Amino acid sequence: MIIEGTALVIAQDDVDTDVIFPGAYLNVLDTREMARYLFEGLDAGLRERIVPGTILVVGDNFGSGSSREQAATAMQAAGITCVVAKSFARIFHRNCINLGLPAIPSPEAAAAARDGSAVRVDPEAGEVEVDGERYPAPVLPPFMLELLEAGGLVPWIGSRR
To answer: Is 109 exposed, middle or buried (0-12, 13-18, 19+ CB in 10 A)?
Structure first.
């Protein structure tokens, strides 16, 4: 699985799920509608900069706070295909994987990326390439790769019946 796209950078650390997808919108169930509120508590202008194939590049402890999976769901619905971070909050990272959104920790790659950088992620090889430079990332365990390939935990379970 290779993921390629254009970087959209959020340079700050400790971005929590409450600003990624604010609690006021938790009653929104339609994923297309969720995308309209993505980053509402941080910078609503970020939504307008998402293009097909956007790879979100973020700082340390991304996704801290509550364990709401709507944050990852709204990112996917908006067109974000992968998140590369200096580090992730543990529950947020697993929510992403369970929903089929690749979440790859690579502090060096996250530090190197700029808005518009060309990014190529290879979760099997443990590598993130930013503007032609390669940086290490942990190799995802086979089970997590299976989940991503299937599109998330629910489709993976459905394929096993």
So the answer is: buried
